[in-house]
Task: structure prediction
Amino acid sequence: MTSDDALRVATGADAPALVDLINSAYRGESSKAGWTTEADLLGGQRIDLDWVIEMIATPESVFLVLERDRVVIGCLRLQRTGGECYLGLLTVRPSLQAGGIGRKLLEGAERWALENWSSRAIHMTVIVQREELLAWYERRGYYRTGTRKPFPYGDERFGLPRRADLEFEVLRKEL
Result:
């Protein structure tokens, strides 16, 4: 992250850029430029415009965006869940991955959750087949809880599964 990078809360005007960024990092050929691709596990879209607009408008929910030279290069979503929060959609532009931006986004989200919501912990779900991603979060202080959640087969909003054994694991970090 350079000194010109700025972390801020997204608005509805950011929704189209967020959709493009998230889909480019998780699915399709563009996602293969980075290491966070799910293209081998899932086809189709990762997110759509209506869903992003809905999440931005949801009370107790924020998208944080990281901008460089007024261009969104990363984002994530936080959802308040009582005294904790859920973190999802951590995204870095594929061509900029492995440069510390994801770590800075994660640290910024943890600070934001603590300062704005007094959150005691953050939890998230990661597809269990994404061992390299699970390890990345573990290096940042998140731990595998052992709790598994089913993948939403049949709901195309989450993508088109290429495997029949997908499921999520819950990770957690105390703040």
